[in-house]
Amino acid sequence: MRLFFCLLCFAPLLLGAQISTFDTNNEAWATFGDATSTTAAWLATGGNPGGHIRVTDQSVGGTWYFQAPQKFLGNKCDAYGTYLRYDQYVSDTSDQQIYGGKPDVILFGAGLQLIFDNAYNPGLEWTHYDILLEEGAGWHLNSLAGPVPTEAQFRAVLSDLAGLRIRGEYRPLDDFGGLDNVSLESVFDFDLDGDDNSGAFDGDFLADTLCFPTGSIADIDALLISGKPVDSIVIRILYANAGEMLEPGPVPGTIDLAFANPQQLALINAGNAPTADFLAAIGQIQYSDQSPKPVRGERLIEFRVYTECGEVAIRYAYLPVYPPPDAGMDGDTLLCAGGDPVFLPDVPAGDPGGYWSPALAGGDYFDPDRDAPGTYRYIIPGAGGCPGDTAALVIGVEQGFDLGADTVICYDDVLTLTIPSGLSAWQWQDGSTGPTLSVTGPGAYALSGQTAACAFSDSLQVDFYTCRECPFYAPNIFSPNDDGINDLWQVFLPCAWLDFRLDVFDRWGNLVFSADDPEKGWNGRSKGKIAMPGVYVWRLTWTGERYGEQKTYRDEGDVTLLR
C-alpha cells in the first residue's frame, strides 16, 4: 500500500473502472453512521480538482462513513489484484490519536467483511490512497484483529460485493470530511445509452415512443468495456406474449447466435470476440410484436452479461410501444333505471386503456341511478407522437313508472289505479290485465309492466278509514209477546267498534237491561220477570274510528214496550 499527501494531485483514472469524480453531482453516494445527513453533500468546487462530496459529523457518538452507490457493487471479481484509489481530507486533525481502532475501508460480500487500516490518517489537504485488492496487502477478515483472508475468501467477497464504506470521521469532536476521485479498478462498463440522453440511467436505455411495435433495443452510443473477455450476453423479453420476438441482423463471425425461443437469444463468444463485435450485434437486433392487436404499453428487455467471473451485469431496455388504438364504434344504448351498473368499455368494444369523459361515478361502470344520461366519450390518449382515438356513446336511461305513494281513503270511496303511459304489456297483482284496477279494500297493490327495453314494477299500500259518523239505529217501540214479531229490542250499529255499552232504565231510574255488544237485544224482561208496559229510557256509549283515530260517541232516547 502506498500513501502520500498532495494538493491538487491525483493518480490517473483507469478507463472502464468504476469511478466517481463528483464533477457534476454526488453520484448517489450516501453515508453510514452519525452523519448529519444520509446523503453526501456535493460541492461544485474545492475538489482535487473540480467538484467533490463532503459529510458533516452529527457528533452524537459512533463513526460515520462514506457509502458507495450501486455501480461500485455486484460482481467485481476482475478487480482482484488491482487497486481501490481515492482522495480524502478532514477538517481537523487534532485529537486523532485518541480515536483509533476503527477500520478505514470495509468491503462487504459473500457473508464476509474485508477490513483495511491505512498507515496514516487523512490530513487537512487532499490525501491520496492506493489500496491493493489482495489478501496480503494488509487486509483482515471481519475485524482489525481478524485473520488474513485467503485468496478464495477475497475473491468471493469481490464476486458478490454488497457494500463499500470509506471512513470519514477521525476525531471524537465535531468535524467534516471530503472525498474525491474514487476508483475501483474493476475494468467493466456496460451502458445501453452511453450519454444517458434517452432519460434512463445506471446503464439502461429508454427508447423513443414507438407508434408501431418494432424498434432497436439499444442506443447508437451503447458502451461495453471489459478487462476480461466477454463469454456471452443473454437477451430476453420479460413478460412476453406469443407474438413478441427478437430479430437479429448480421452477426460478426466472432460471435455465435443461439435462440432459446423467439423471445430470448444469446450472443456467444466464438473465440477472441472483442467487445465492439458484441456491440455491433446488439445494434442490429430489433424488437417486434407480430400480435394481431399489440397491447399498448411499455416492453421490458433484459440483458445479462457473463465473463469468466460469471454474471457481471444486468441492464434493461424500456420500449414504450403505442400503436394506433381503436376506441370502438360510436353508438347508443338504452339502460334501465334501477338496473345493475354496466361496464361501458364492452359497449363500444374498444381497446383497453382508455377513460370516460365525463367521468363515471363507478370508474368504467355506468350506474343508471348515479350517472346522468347523455353523451359519453371513450378516449384512448395518444402517447409521444403516436395518435389516440375516441368513440362517442349516447346513453339513455329509461325510467320506471310510479303508482303513487301509499295512501288511506274512506271506506265508502273507491280508488282507481290506472296503467301509466309507455307500457307495452302489464299485469296487476291479481293477474288481471285491464287498463285500470278498482281498489275497494285495504292491502298491497302491485303492477308489473314492460317498456320498450325494460321491465319495471311498482306497488303501493292502500288503507281505509271511517270518514263519516256511523248511522246507527235504535227502534222506539217493540212488543215482546212471543209472537215472533218485534219481540227483541236492540241498537243496530253497522260500523266497526272497539267498546260498546247500552243501558235501559225504567221510569224510576232502575236499570232493567245492559249490553256490551250491539248483537245483544232486550227481550222485555228484568231480573227474569216480565217488565211492565210503558216508556223506558236508554243510554248508549261506544268507541269507534274516524279518520284513523279513536272517537267515542254518546246518545240516549226512549223506547215504548207494548204488551
What is the strand and helix layout of this fold?
Blueprint: E1 2-5, E2 18-20, E3 30-32, E4 41-43, E5 52-56, E6 65-67, E7 83-90, E8 105-109, E9 112-116, E10 127-132, E11 140-141, H1 151-159, E12 161-167, E13 176-184, E14 188-191, E15 205-206, E16 214-216, E17 223-226, E18 230-238, E19 244-247, E20 255-261, E21 264-269, H2 275-284, E22 286-289, E23 297-307, E24 310-321, E25 331-336, E26 342-343, E27 355-357, E28 365-366, E29 374-380, E30 389-398, E31 407-410, E32 415-418, E33 425-428, E34 436-439, E35 443-450, E36 455-465, E37 477-478, E38 499-505, E39 511-515, E40 525-526, E41 529-530, E42 534-546, E43 549-561
Parallel strand pairs: 15-24, 25-30, 31-36, 37-43
Antiparallel strand pairs: 1-10, 2-13, 3-6, 4-5, 5-13, 6-12, 7-10, 7-13, 8-9, 8-12, 9-11, 14-17, 16-22, 18-21, 18-23, 19-22, 20-21, 23-24, 26-28, 27-29, 29-30, 32-34, 33-35, 35-36, 38-39, 38-42, 40-41, 42-43
